[in-house]
Amino acid sequence: MTNHHTTRRTLVLAGLAGLAAAPMLPGLVTAAAATEGDVLSRDAVLRDPDAPAVGNPKGDITIVEYFDYQCPYCKTVHAELKQVMRDDPKVRVVYKDWPIFGGPSGYAARLALASRRQNKYLEAHEALLGVKEKLSEESVRTTLAGVGVDVEQALAELQTNRTAIEAALTRHHTQATAFGFSGTPAFIIGYFRVPGALDAATFKRAIKDARAAAAKGAK
């Protein structure tokens, strides 16, 4: 029986079959003349200092994930992406909150980003993706407290740095929509746009194609 998840995954796999022929729009990320303030420049997409990153900081492939803490596919894909990082020590992953599932998603994204000052973003990220039910502001606070986040401090940090946090979320939204993504999760893998929930094997195929493109001098 074909369900929504199966159909979506089939479409993703079909798209990946021609991945090498579908690079990112060169006028966006790869423009050498992009200004420092251009949110679609390569550095803004791949090296934004306000976007948490894990994996090898000097990795030869960067994966940018646009996600929402209430997206069920994001929860599923998280374990697959962690497996990829364990198997491939040359991968770097950048997390970009794109809260499109309503108010609690935005609240979760903002508090998670505010927890970075406590060096607790990754704990917050893992915990929020592990919540099975729909989020509420109360459940977000409870979840973060459960992994050692000082919630009051995070709320204070959110107020202090609200401008920077809101600007980061705006950049993420601008990038995701400019790349033609219509939902979460969505990925930039090397020089390619890849929408949808991938399994570890499909991630690895995409990474292989991205490395091949880079070796051929894709810009």
UniProtKB/TrEMBL annotation:
Gene3D superfamilies, alphabetized: Glutaredoxin
UniProt keyword Signal, yes or no: yes
Source organism per UniProt: Rhodoplanes serenus
Keyword rRNA-binding belongs to the record: no
Protein name, entry field: Uncharacterized protein
PROSITE patterns: TAT, THIOREDOXIN_2
Domain of life: Bacteria
Gene Ontology MF terms in the entry: oxidoreductase activity
